[in-house]
Amino acid sequence: MAEHRSVLLTCSGQRVDIVRAFQDALARRGEGGRVLVSDLDPLSPSLVSADLVVDLPAVDDPGYGTAVAAVVSREGVGAVLPLTDLDPVVLAEAAPEVADAGGTVFLPAPEVAAACQDKWLCHVALEAAGLPSPPTWPTEGTDRGSLPYPIMIKPRIGFAGRWIHRCADQEELDFHLSRTPVASVLQKALPGEEFSIDCLGSLEGTAIGAIPRAMYQSKGGEQIKGETLDDPQLVELGAAVVEGLGLVGPCTIQCFREDGRILGVTDINTRFGGGFPLPVAAGGDYPSLILALAAGEDVAPRLGTHRAGVVMTRFLSEHVLVRDGDQLRPTTGREEAVSGGI
Ligand SMILES: Nc1ncnc2c1ncn2[C@@H]1O[C@H](COP(=O)(O)OP(=O)(O)O)[C@@H](O)[C@H]1O
Ligand SMILES: [Mg+2]
Questions:
Q1: Do residue 157 and residue 254 come from a single domain?
Q2: CA of 190 to the centre of ligand 1 (A)
Q3: What is the CATH number of the domain that holds 22?
């Protein structure tokens, strides 16, 4: 186990911020270990930043979990974390196999991971745990005439705000329901302000961290502008959701609040949120804590110890690469011009 020091980030996509944060955490730990990534798109920016790119099959391939376990064993991986919503359930199912190979999957039990992906099951799980969830109805068998409009139509399994519509009345709901191609739920459109809480659950599902942030601006599900908050009520809510559902590893919990009253938890992602740099900058240091947990160390809860008033405003960045045979080679972005042109 001791030699399993590396980190595997699956479906790593654009999450260069997370790759770098784990590289930094490994360097500070000073025991070696690399950041490994996988993504089916060979042009995913995170592949350029990682220490090693590993080949994995598509997430719906029946051999995916076994392939992850093989990488864990071969490359000495201690911690496995998904970076998108594509593979948390299949990775959670593979956790025993990964454990046999010497690594830890930072996800809750498969049925909890599945419930967090499905907005109907999530509502049921929150209510069963005595946690606040907005009034939510299935699309089948609900009398649409008696709903308390405005109503949101939301995909059961959705992400990045896709196929979500706010419906002012039954006519709008009937229209969107007739057009949506995905299984959906109906949810009361909540007033008030929306918040996000970046949490970390221990391997036993106790809350280690809960860092609330205001969501000033999001684009396509990614937080562009936000700020960490000194907000004990939201810290408490984050910890209660982690412990009520048994969430393991990093997760992001979204909720609405009006006049000091929590109206409901609207979304839970069992992975690092799009606002990842903010809790890190606010002293959350989740990557280091995950390395410590993967190494079997005790990590004490640190609820309410983050720095408030840390503000993030995002911009696009890039890797510029040059084709060199069948390789892509990083450049400074200032290649020499070709001499003797036309
Ligand atoms: N019940 C609701 N009331 C008001 N707005 C909502 C509600 N549910 C979702 N939204 C809005 O839609 C956005 C996306 O919804 P969310 O449940 O987070 O789905 P996704 O899984 O796509 O991120 C939220 O950030 C919020 O702005
Ligand atoms: Mg969301």
A1: no
A2: 9
A3: 3.40.50.20
Range of the domain at 149: 135-188
Q: Domain check: are 80 and 153 in the same one? A: no
In-domain check, residue 32: yes
Rounded distance between C-alpha atoms, residue 120 and residue 115, angstroms:
8
Q: Which helix (H) or strand (E) element contains residue 271?
A: none
CB of 194 shorter than 6 A to ligand 1: yes
Query: Are residue 226 and residue 261 in the same domain, yes or no?
Result: yes
Of all ligands present, the nearest one to the C-alpha of 256 is 1
Q: Which residues contact 148 (CB under 8 A, 6 or more apart)?
A: 135, 188
- Give the contacts of 38 (CB within 8 A, at least 6 positions apart): 8, 9, 10, 11, 12, 53, 54, 55, 56, 71
Measure the CA–CA gap between 18 and 40, rounded to whole angstroms.
18
Q: Is 190 in the pocket of ligand 1 (CB under 6 A)?
A: yes
Q: What is the pLDDT of residues 158-204, one digit of tens each?
A: 878 889 999 999 999 999 999 999 999 999 999 999 999 999 999 99
User: What are the helix (H) ranges across 191-307?
Assistant: 232-245, 277-281, 286-294
Judgement on whether residues 171 and 243 belong to the same structural domain of the protein = no
Coil vs helix vs strand at 306: coil
Dump the DSSP string for 98-117: HHHTT-EE-S--HHHHHHHH
Residue in 197, 267, 268 to alter for ligand 1 test, most ligand atoms within 8 A of Cβ: 267
Give the predicted TM-score (pTM) of the model: 0.96
